[in-house]
Amino acid sequence: MARSASSAQLEKEDILALLSDAEIGKVSMAETKTSLAAGEQFVDLDNLAAGVQMVEGSGAPNTHDLIVRSAVGAKTWSNIVERLRAS
């Protein structure tokens, strides 16, 4: 069953709520990058059902609305992964 738009927005907000103010700043800065390096892990806030993804080769995604693993602390990343698994 497809999730409603409001359900998807709530999940996105739940994930963002796991970030500290400092991490939100880092994530915002990461969004200004034009691409990610091969091997970087990320979560696409517009496609949470895809879970944790990894950049492969030159097929790096647009960095808008992504949480890049390197932009958050280890504990926060762990919490994000747990939250995604619970969805």
What does this structure look like?
The chain has helices at residues 5-16, 21-30, 74-86; strands spanning 41-44, 52-54, 66-68. 40% of the residues lie in helices and 11% in strands. The longest helix is centred in the C-terminal third of the chain and has 13 residues, at 74-86. The protein has a 3-stranded antiparallel β-sheet with strand order 2-1-3, with no helix packed on it. 13% of the residues are buried. It is α+β, with helices and mostly antiparallel strands. The chain has one domain (5-86). A hairpin with a 7-residue loop joins strand 1 (41-44) and strand 2.
Terminal residue distance: 13 Å
Overall number of structural domains: 1
Q: Tally the helices: what do you get?
A: 3
Work out the strand percent.
5-15%
With strands numbered from the N-terminus, the spatial order across the biggest sheet is 2-1-3
> What is the helical fraction, as a range of percent?
40-55%
Largest sheet features:
3 strands, antiparallel
Q: Mind telling me the C-alpha Rg?
A: 13 Å
Which residues form runs of ≥5 with pLDDT under 50?
none
Number of strands: 3
Assign an overall shape.
globular
Order of helices and strands: HHEEEH
* Mean pLDDT metric: 83
Category by helix and strand content: alpha+beta
Question: Which features characterize this protein?
Answer:
87 residues, alpha+beta, three-stranded antiparallel beta sheet, 3 helices
SSE map:
Blueprint: H1 5-16, H2 21-30, E1 41-44, E2 52-54, E3 66-68, H3 74-86
Antiparallel strand pairs: 1-2, 1-3
TL;DR of this structure?
Helices cover 40% and strands 11% of the residues. By secondary structure, it is an alpha+beta fold. It has one domain (5-86).
